[in-house]
Design brief:
Shape: rod-shaped
Structural class: mainly alpha
Strand content: 5-15%
Radius of gyration: 27 Å
Largest sheet: 2 strands, antiparallel
Number of helices: 8
Number of domains: 2
Number of strands: 2
Distance between the termini: 73 Å
Strand order of the largest sheet: 1-2
Length: 163
């Protein structure tokens, strides 16, 4: 971007990002060639600069795109971490929906924010006594039945204390 005129930054940025949206290595190379051709027409200095940069390493035989290696240029790692965050977000969403389904009929149909507010952000505190964990919930808490339904569904009903 150092040789790109400031007014052209959004366009050049969009072109370069389109390269990363390709499904496989051959598509990446083809898209990159089209990007260079587009830039050569309107911004020849930028196209020249990109020809000399590390982006051309995609064509090398040991390229991370071709070999499937986990190491590679920083830009490739950045997009791999975005994929990891996407997987974690999907897992969190699915676990939240599953918790809502276990808790009650209302929460099975509720949105993610409602489940998070009513079941996950519990207004209680944990206490430990005699090597046992206990959660103390407020009296007359409106979400107690749903939360206990979730707890019993996930962990089973509590064992009765024997004295």
């Amino acid at each position: 971007m150092s040789v790109t005129p400031k007014a052209s930054w959004p366009w050049v940025r969009t072109l370069l990002r389109s390269v990363y949206d390709q499904p496989d290595a051959d598509s990446v190379v083809a898209r990159y060639d089209r990007v260079l051709n587009s830039l050569a027409e309107k911004l020849p200095k930028v196209a020249e600069h990109l020809e000399r940069t590390a982006l051309t390493s995609w064509r090398s035989p040991r390229s991370p795109w071709r070999s499937g290696a986990s190491s590679g240029p920083t830009t490739l790692r950045k997009f791999a971490s975005n994929g990891a965050w996407l997987v974690l977000a999907a897992m969190a969403f699915n676990l939240t929906r599953a918790a809502g389904t276990i808790a009650s009929v209302f929460h099975a149909k509720a949105g993610t924010a409602t489940i998070r507010r009513q079941l996950i952000a519990v207004p209680g505190h944990l206490a430990r006594a005699a090597r046992r964990m206990a959660i103390h919930l407020p009296k007359d808490w409106p979400g107690q039945d749903s939360w206990e339904g979730l707890f019993n569904g996930a962990c089973g009903p509590p064992t009765p204390e024997t004295t």
